Amino acid sequence: MLPKQDHLPLARRMAVEGLLKSDPAERAARGGGRFEPGANSKSRIGVRYLGREVWLSLPGGTMETPGGGGPLSLREEILIFHYLEKASGIPPTGNWISFAEISGGTFYHPVFLQRCKAPLVRHLGGEPQRLLSLAAEEVGGESLALGDAGVKIPVFPRVALGMILWRGDAEFPPDGNVLFDSSITGYLPVEDIVILAETVVWKLIKRKNTDSPQRAQSTQS
User: Fold this and answer.
1) Which of 19, 52, 145, 191 has its CA 20 to 30 A from that of 79?
2) Is the pTM of this model over 0.85?
3) Is residue 175 part of a domain?
4) Residue 91 covered by a domain
């Protein structure tokens, strides 16, 4: 099951312990990050996450984002730890797959549809042209030649998401999906893939909702 909110502190402690049981230097390299050893058995790992530089201090597990952008949520911190712990080092294949095609994803597929695909279509399906601008502003997305509107979002150095939307017409309603490079299970377990997609989808929705009042005021003035 996906972790509940009140279970997140324990899940975070377990994620830190899991990374410490591995070779952090090796995991940093496999995940496309940087490892910096320090004195007294202390070290830190730097890794890119949604366009931000994040530094993890070990063994304590504290995280810093020197470039600003606000604090990370507990779910995001856990995702970063899990990404580094599981990092296989295999390069992206460039082969986009749906969640239904991910090995072991059958159990979580209804959750993915409810938490990821449905909000994406409900909030952005009527304005697919805004997908690229929102993704570029919020998470460093770039154009992807799929659907009526598509973006590629670099989440980690070796994990990217694809988001696509179709406008719909008089016969068919708007539709969309979140896609993944076929190498993603070499970096995150299936339940984390759901959380990752949900996190990015809602970042775009919140950015849209923040921008909408400003756009309305600009139009009125």
Assistant:
1) 145
2) yes
3) yes
4) no
